[in-house]
């Protein structure tokens, strides 16, 4: 029998340092689609999203598209120089359109990348959750056996 001053309690464990054995190998294509081009591959085991990143985004209704006839888009094709359409012949207009198109493409690509990362991370977390539940079940069973042993010990020898 040891006395309380001879016992040593284990050091606290940082939950982020615990590695759970998870049988999960993501599809390489999914990893590539979840990684920033030119950067290192996305690791669903280590990446953590902030609360803000995981908030649902509101659905924004798009305005109806107003199609502009091709003849009005290209310089020099209008017969009436005083028409309200010459705005489309303006070089500034096309510079802004091209800049906006590139920004929209970057925004869509960034959103798609984030969605792919969240999907791959969620798949990993589902597997990890299953593994942890199995481990908890085994530990509870083991703890039950120890409680049973202690119960028999107390019944035979009395309180400690």
From TrEMBL:
InterPro entries: bZIP, bZIP_sf, PAR_bZIP. The keyword DNA-binding applies. Residues 90-153 form the BZIP domain. Transmembrane segments: none annotated. It is found in: Nucleus. The keyword Membrane does not apply. PROSITE patterns: BZIP. Its main location: nucleus. Residues 1-20, 34-55 are annotated as: Disordered. SUPFAM superfamilies: Leucine zipper domain. Signal peptide: none annotated. Keywords: Activator, DNA-binding, Nucleus, Transcription, Transcription regulation. Belongs to the bZIP family. PAR subfamily. PANTHER family: THYROTROPH EMBRYONIC FACTOR (PTHR11988:SF24), THYROTROPH EMBRYONIC FACTOR RELATED (PTHR11988). This is BZIP domain-containing protein. The lineage of its organism: Eukaryota, Metazoa, Chordata, Craniata, Vertebrata.
């Amino acid at each position: 029998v040891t006395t309380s001053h001879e016992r040593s309690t284990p050091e606290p464990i940082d939950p982020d340092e615990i590695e759970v054995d998870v049988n999960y190998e993501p599809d390489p294509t999914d990893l590539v689609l979840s990684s920033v081009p030119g950067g290192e591959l996305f690791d669903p085991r280590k990446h953590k999203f902030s609360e803000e990143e995981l908030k649902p985004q509101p659905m924004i209704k798009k305005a109806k598209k107003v199609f502009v006839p091709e003849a009005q888009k290209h310089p020099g094709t209008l017969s009436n120089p005083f028409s309200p359409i010459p705005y489309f012949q303006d070089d500034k207009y096309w510079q802004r359109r091209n800049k906006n198109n590139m920004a929209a493409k970057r925004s869509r690509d960034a959103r798609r990348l984030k969605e792919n990362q969240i999907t791959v991370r969620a798949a990993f977390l589902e597997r990890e959750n299953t593994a942890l539940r199995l481990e908890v079940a085994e530990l509870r069973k083991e703890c039950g056996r120890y409680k049973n042993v202690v119960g028999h010990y107390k019944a035979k020898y009395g309180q400690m």
